[in-house]
Amino acid sequence: MGSWSCDARLATDSELDQDLSDRLGLSGSDTLTNGGQRADVAAAKRLAKRLFNLDGFRKSDVARHLSKNNDFSRMVAEEYLGFFDFTGLALDQALRTFLRQFALMGETQERERVLSHFSKRYLDCNPRVIPSEDAVHTLTCALMLLNTDLHGQVSDNY
């Protein structure tokens, strides 16, 4: 076997944020985070709307923006989920509706964050169906695992 090397590097979070600021048309004073303290609500709303409408973004871009562990991404996720009305839907129906909009990709903890945002929104829309956000999240993860078991690639080394 031959060896290979890759000189390409991954973009840093600050480079991705700068690219996003450029795409959103933010000026230098209208940043994604104000001194690292408080994220810009208006920018979060604009980004959420563009992500939902896939305006300048691909389905594969959405989860990356919803899954970061910072105030701005949490605001974007909250605004993004606001475009969904899960009222009266069974949990599996709501999850299907949600996951049709984008590709849920990334590391486990990143996918967990996105599913946590979903769980909160589902509970907001259906406060009497399941008793807590944790219960919604647990059932959501169980549905994801069952779906993977049912439709995922089966390994002979099981």
Automatic annotation (TrEMBL):
Annotated GO MF terms: guanyl-nucleotide exchange factor activity
CDD domains given in the database record: Sec7 (cd00171)
Occurrences of domain SEC7 (ranges): 28-151
Single biological process term from Gene Ontology: regulation of ARF protein signal transduction
InterPro entries named in the record: Sec7_C_sf, Sec7_dom, Sec7_dom_sf
Domain of life where this protein originates: Eukaryota
Pfam families assigned to the protein according to its UniProt record, in alphabetical order: Sec7
SUPFAM superfamilies, per the entry: Sec7 domain
Membrane-spanning parts: none
PANTHER family for the chain: GUANYL-NUCLEOTIDE EXCHANGE FACTOR (PTHR10663), PH AND SEC7 DOMAIN-CONTAINING PROTEIN 1 (PTHR10663:SF334)
Protein name as annotated: SEC7 domain-containing protein
Originating species: Mola mola
Source species taxonomy: Eukaryota, Metazoa, Chordata, Craniata, Vertebrata
